């Protein structure tokens, strides 16, 4: 074999080792990174995306630009991420909805195991049960559960878009208590839930703290319970569903995801960049503003958490024979 041929093969091998799948080079990133948020500006998911981008981009070395693609309870954003080129320049915020929606929404083609590579966890938030202060359902939540068991499908429960975090809490709550509510999805999330709850069109709503906390502080809402294991120190007077005797523990988790096939060196680089961003004091302060909790877990642990949720969802789907809507 000639010397030029050997040299060419060696150079090709070196190029492949630095650029597996054509998507990685030691210069990555060389341009801005897009971060897809599948909800509109002002939503909890959008707030987390912008906060994570702001405090991570200096560690990534290039700007991280949030692009809102709302619709379908986040499914439009998830679909856009799944279809993106796996080169490390398109990321997205994933939530539990990305795991559950393919089972229960018609026309969904993404799958969290096949369509995405999880980069890391960046935040979580409690779901709260809220109602108009002084309204007819401003009563202990245990009484509402009793009413919903005695007369099923008579109490109107507002949730975010179909099979979003609040809808999952509603399902888990019904499973744990035997209560049955009239489920009323609101695809725009808090933008629709808040007026519905204030106007009395909903008996109660379930949503993230960013929806109800400001109006709770203003005396407009009563918060009947939150979904996490422990009370939130920011709202130490609000009981957990567990304290009320219901086996419900659920925090909406937000992960950074990339399209399937994104090179592993890119995933590792991004996970480390987001780890440093999440650790910034400004990230914590910004999370407090929207009543979220900073969190970080690497790719392997994040995928394990997703798999555990997938098992839980599959059991509920089978138990109640849930069908795509």
Structural class: alpha/beta
The CATH C-level name of the largest domain is: Alpha Beta
Strand content: 15-25%
Sequence of secondary-structure elements:
HEHEHEHHEHEHEHEHEEHHEH
Number of domains: 2
Shape assignment? globular
Counted by DSSP, the helix tally is 12
Quick one: how many beta strands?
10
Termini separation comes to: 63 Å
The main sheet comes to: 10 strands, mixed
Kindly report the CATH topology of the largest domain: D-Maltodextrin-Binding Protein, domain 2
> Which architecture of the largest domain would the CATH scheme give at its second level?
3-Layer(aba) Sandwich
Tell me, rounded to a whole number, the average pLDDT: 91
Percent helix: 40-55%
Low-confidence stretches: 1-23
Question: CATH homologous superfamily name of the largest domain?
Answer: Bordetella uptake gene, domain 1
